[in-house]
Specification:
Largest sheet: 7 strands, antiparallel
Shape: elongated
CATH superfamily of one domain: Uncharacterised protein PF07273 family, DUF1439
Helix content: 25-40%
CATH topology of one domain: Bactericidal permeability-increasing protein, domain 1
Number of strands: 10
Low-confidence stretches: 21-27
Number of helices: 3
Order of helices and strands: HEHEEEEEEHEEE
Radius of gyration: 24 Å
Length: 193
């Protein structure tokens, strides 16, 4: 009788260990970053996305007003950024603002040592300007914005993994693969094939 109770208790303990192990493995199996995660990270840094430059010798202050993030548009492995910005032209002591809409796309890249996600190799997909009755493309200004984004995103991650969350140490210790699906980036261990 006693041995039966002992076996039942041992079986119960082993079952609990197994279930606990399964829950740990499932948390390690993958980790995802959503569009909203990336957008929130960038919005915290949006004040730093400004630059003073000149176009045809005229001083221009470039600043980003809002930013939308789209992960995996049209099932492609890119992160798209839609930015609404202001280009303030300073002429004769007066400032003239122009609304700029930009579309940018880049490749997501995960730096395992930093536990940080970057977007690199940006390309321009859309460039519209609306300034005092003029609407259209203004390539020199769009090129300046591209330079601003490329310089900034080369050194500033769009998302950092929270080291405080339990069970995420594997993100810096095992080889990873990034799967990009509409709306999110999924990190998973890369097993030898």
């Amino acid at each position: 009788m006693r041995s039966t109770i002992w076996y039942k208790n041992a079986l119960l303990v082993l079952t609990l260990f197994y279930l606990n192990g399964c829950s740990v493995i499932s948390s390690v199996a993958s980790y995802s970053v959503t569009e909203q995660d990336i957008e929130q990270g960038l919005l915290k840094q949006i004040d730093q996305l400004s630059d003073k430059t000149s176009v045809a010798g005229i001083p221009v202050i470039l600043s980003v007003e809002s930013l939308d993030v789209i992960v995996g548009p049209d099932n492609r492995s890119v992160v798209a950024l839609q930015a609404d910005a202001i280009a303030s032209v300073s002429v004769f002591g007066l400032r003239y603002p122009a609304k700029v809409k930009l579309g940018l796309e880049g490749e997501p890249y995960y730096n395992q040592q930093e536990k940080a996600l970057y977007v690199r190799s940006l390309t321009l997909t859309r460039s519209e300007i609306d300034a005092a009755g003029f609407k259209g493309n203004l390539t020199p200004l769009a090129d300046r914005y591209m330079g601003l984004f490329n310089r900034y995103l080369a050194t500033h991650p769009v998302y950092e993994v929270d080291n405080g969350k339990g069970g995420l140490a594997w993100l810096s210790t095992v080889p990873l693969k990034l799967d990009i699906v509409p709306g999110k980036i999924i990190f998973a261990p890369r097993f030898k094939e």
